[in-house]
Write a structure and sequence with these properties.
Number of strands: 8
Number of helices: 3
Structural class: alpha+beta
Strand content: 25-35%
CATH class: Alpha Beta
Radius of gyration: 15 Å
Distance between the termini: 28 Å
Helix content: 10-25%
CATH superfamily: Methylpurine-DNA glycosylase (MPG)
Largest sheet: 8 strands, antiparallel
Order of helices and strands: HEEEEEHHEEE
Length: about 200
């Protein structure tokens, strides 16, 4: 169960720099409010997509699809990919600058029974391992795009329920442009982190 001490993060708590925010979010709590109850998880893996980064959706400027990346830091950017997966991101710079942090994995905390039904698996560590699984487990879809994650609502960022462990850093997963950049952050040793073994240790 989530402790009563869990508080919503304020925008002033969030670094206004993409890589710094990606690292900062490790260990923080993601909360999804649903009519049936609350789903929560610890963020254990993120990837940063910086201004001027060829792998970032904002690289060529604002469009109807990516406009949420240009919102003030702390807003949700949700997109649909491969015809069947949503991806959940957090805008990460000042308003007008396109950049974001992809949430790649969670450690499930609360609402696990509901997540089991959504994901069709009993393996807790695998329910939210990887960005597509994470979004599916939380029922994150385009209705959440542009949402303020620092305000009361159906999805928000909360304080850590316990301190993050050692944080690792590596290249990002599954991209071809600017693939050399070490902009992936993760909690070392967490069984919920995605990717090959050598990128989880």
């Amino acid at each position: 169960m989530i402790p009563r001490s869990l508080k919503r993060l304020r925008r002033t708590d969030l670094p206004v720099a993409t890589a710094a925010l990606a690292r900062y979010l490790i260990g923080k709590t993601l909360v999804r409010e649903l009519p049936r109850g609350r789903i929560t998880g610890r963020i254990v893996e993120t990837e940063a997509y910086l201004p001027g980064d060829a792998a970032c959706h904002a690289f060529r400027g604002p469009t109807r699809r990516n406009r949420s990346l240009f919102l003030e830091h702390g807003h949700a950017y949700v997109y649909f990919i491969y015809g069947n997966h949503f991806m959940l991101n957090v805008s990460s710079e000042r308003e007008g600058v396109g950049a974001g942090v992809l949430l790649r994995a969670l450690e499930p905390l609360d609402g696990i029974a509901w997540m089991r039904k959504r994901r069709g698996t009993t393996r807790v560590h695998g329910m939210t391992r990887g960005p597509g699984r994470l979004a599916a487990a939380l029922r994150a879809n385009m209705q959440l795009d542009g949402l303020d994650l620092c305000a009361k609502g159906p999805l928000w960022l909360g304080t850590a329920v316990r301190p993050a462990g050692r944080i690792g850093r590596s290249v990002r997963i599954g991209i071809t442009k600017d693939a050399h950049r070490r902009l992936r952050f993760y909690e070392r040793g967490s069984p919920c982190v995605s990717g090959p073994k050598h990128l989880r240790e």
